[in-house]
Amino acid sequence: MTSPGGLSVPFGTVTITERARSLIQDALARGQVSGGRLVAEFEARFAALHGVREAVAVSSGTDADTLALAVLHDFGARRGDEVIVPALSFVATGSAVLHAGFTPVFVDVDLRTLNIDAGAIEAAVTERTRAIMPVHLMGKPADMDAVLAVARRHKLAVIEDAAEAHGALWRGRRVGTIGDMGAFSTYVAHIITTIEGGVVITDREEYAEVLRSLRAHGRSCTCKRCVMSTGGGYCERRFGRPGVEDTRFVFDRIGYSSKMNELEAAVGLGHLDLYETILAKRYRNLKYALERFGALGPHLYTIGEEPHERLGPHALPVIIGKDASLRRRDLIEFLQRRRIDSRTLFASMPTQCPGFAFLGYRPGQFPNAEYLGTHGLHVGVHQDLELEHMEYVLDSLRGFLERAQR
Ligand SMILES: Cc1ncc(COP(=O)(O)O)c(C=O)c1O
After folding, report:
1. CA of 41 to the centre of ligand 1 (A)
2. pTM for this entry
């Protein structure tokens, strides 16, 4: 096996371009750091990249999920209504449903795709279901045929949690644009980053207006470009509503404090300049590992890419096969000794995350999510890694298996 020598494989990286640095300096010099023209430009470019009418930047991917769901209250949903989500995801998916005032209803996932078990969605629909929120976990598109079919039959909204799926395609369409809204995270380890942040995209203007209100405490302002914060000065609409003293201080709905700031948007704009390059390099790294992963089976397995999809190169999942008597903890430690950073493959939210215990689910109800929650991990494929790093990861996994078989 390659000597651990000089190589290390950190999980994530952040690229802060020269342009981002100079935009940050400008914003500081102008004294305009809360959401303004840079956030507006970031939104316009994010929307154009995805070919949608609207993008609304918020302060995290969790808030992107939460606010997208909270929009539904303006369109007939009631507090306590249900939202169907996969049992396995980063915990934010489930928390967001609760933050938005809904009840999460969990559906088990598929062991191979890691995504919501398409055949089990319909059985989870009740009279109180308002939405399905599939997650494109690890950049692998969820089965949107099945999700859309159930949603159409039962008149449910579809909000895609695309936090980890920048650049993923499903039947040629960008994920996040297939449902009613798509929620992205721009957290530091993600493909487009603003360090902390998130974006909701949609083609429906009326949803975007509510999103802009929700991110600012539910205030009555819904303009796409706020003249006050983008240097335009006097706002005609502010004092122009009959019977209202100051529209900015009318709060139409229960909102959140979830705005993106100019410095974050500047980092994001720098990333958007490099988007194709970053995406291509991460995809190359991921494909290199996926194409060679079969040799590690059946003890270890990963996800595949089907002809109808293109994976968003978020990370490389590594899962211990059912017949292998290997412990994930040993594998994580083995990799860490070789300076390969890893993260677990999250957990079954309802049965492995103590915060959700109050919902009353019992261990054993989500066998696949629970299995992945104890036997899966993921490692980085980011743009600062070269193929030799990917080879080093594969070599280390081989080394782990050899040692375990001795
Ligand atoms: C699937 C999923 N949903 C939501 C989030 C929340 O994003 P953030 O960390 O930006 O709040 C994450 C975080 O990475 C995620 O992986």
Report:
1. 23
2. 0.96
